[in-house]
Design a protein that fits this description.
This protein is of the alpha+beta class. The chain has two domains: 16-74, Arc Repressor Mutant, subunit A, CATH 1.10.10.10; 85-270, Beta-Lactamase. Helix content is 45%, strand content 19%. It contains ten helices and nine strands. It has helices at residues 16-29, 37-44, 48-60, 76-106, 148-154, 159-164, 181-186, 188-194, 236-256, 263-270, and strands at 35-36, 64-67, 71-74, 109-116, 119-126, 141-142, 197-200, 207-215, 221-230. The strands form two sheets. Strands 6-5-4-9-8-7 form a six-stranded antiparallel β-sheet. Strand 4 (109-116) and strand 5 form a beta hairpin. Helix 2 (37-44) crosses helix 3 and helix 4 packs antiparallel against helix 9. The protein is elongated, with a radius of gyration of 23 Å. It starts with 15 loop residues before the first helix and ends with a helix.
């Protein structure tokens, strides 16, 4: 029996079991009561055997819960996943006005990154009002080891977790890229002492980034943010002003998402 899929697309890459699972999940998400295997199969146009196997596997993984007499409903694992996404999008909304002020005060491109399994995900970018600026694409994934925002996050992770992101062969992007995990880790003490991380032409020749960590209500590092500009402009008092502005922006975003710690106050006293 063919699976009735609700999603778009031309079907060239359809996987019946995956389509059946998504149909069940989407259907149960809109139902106020548990549904049984047979009635789900009839409603969705899939075999009873497929419905049983999908529901069994979803139950084993915590995405579906047995309820009532032979009925099933979505489990709490979906709620947990949803809250993770909510936190990410809430972070972006909270950070946006602060990034806009940072871009205005520094005249540079400002970015917000979060860490995921593939590296640093560019969540948001604010471009300055200028005739020339460096363009970064939201949604892009960047390596951690040569990324100021990535290093700002890794420095505040548990050591074993941070090293997992530095395992294997590190890609050399420029002649200034650190391709030794040990060399990257050696920068973490300075980052933890000052709150600032740098990409000094390590990702792209001629481009310099200043990053700082963002902390959530639990005190855990949640993101990295900062500025991206031309390396030739990173000289003298202007560089110090930019660094203070990046720290102030990270402190404001952290406060907006519930952080009440004293890290930023200590870093400001040192600068």
């Amino acid at each position: 029996m063919a699976v009735r899929t609700k999603a778009g697309g031309d079907g060239r890459y359809a996987v019946p079991a995956v389509d059946g699972m998504l149909d069940i999940v989407e259907f149960l998400a809109g139902q106020p009561r548990p549904w049984g295997i047979n009635e789900l199969a009839r409603e969705l146009g899939i075999t009873t055997n497929m419905a049983f196997r999908i529901l069994r596997r979803l139950t084993e993984r915590g995405y579906v819960e047995a309820a009532g007499e032979g009925g099933y409903q979505l489990g709490t694992r979906f709620f947990s996943l949803g809250m993770r996404l909510y936190t990410r999008f809430e972070l972006r909304a909270r950070a946006r006005p602060h990034l806009e002020r940072l871009a205005s005060s520094t005249g540079e491109t400002c970015q917000l990154h979060v860490l995921n399994a593939r590296g640093m995900l560019v969540v948001d970018v604010v471009n300055p009002r200028a005739d020339f600026f460096l363009q970064v694409v939201p949604g892009a994934h960047l390596n951690c080891h040569a990324n100021a925002f990535g290093k700002a996050v890794l420095a505040f992770l548990p050591s074993a977790e941070a090293r997992r992101y530095l395992a294997g062969k590190l890609e050399r992007m420029t002649d200034r890229t650190l391709i030794s995990a040990a060399a990257v880790v050696r920068q973490f003490d300075a980052i933890r002492a000052t709150g600032l991380a740098y990409d000094r032409e390590e990702y792209v020749r001629g481009v310099h980034c200043v990053g700082a960590p963002v902390f959530d209500a639990s005190g855990a590092v949640a993101a990295g943010l900062g500025t991206t500009g031309l390396a030739m402009a990173r000289e003298g008092a202007g560089a110090e002003t930019c660094e203070r502005a990046v720290l102030d922006c990270a402190a404001a975003v952290s406060k907006d998402i519930g952080y009440a710690g004293e890290r930023f106050e200590a870093w400001r006293k040192r600068s």
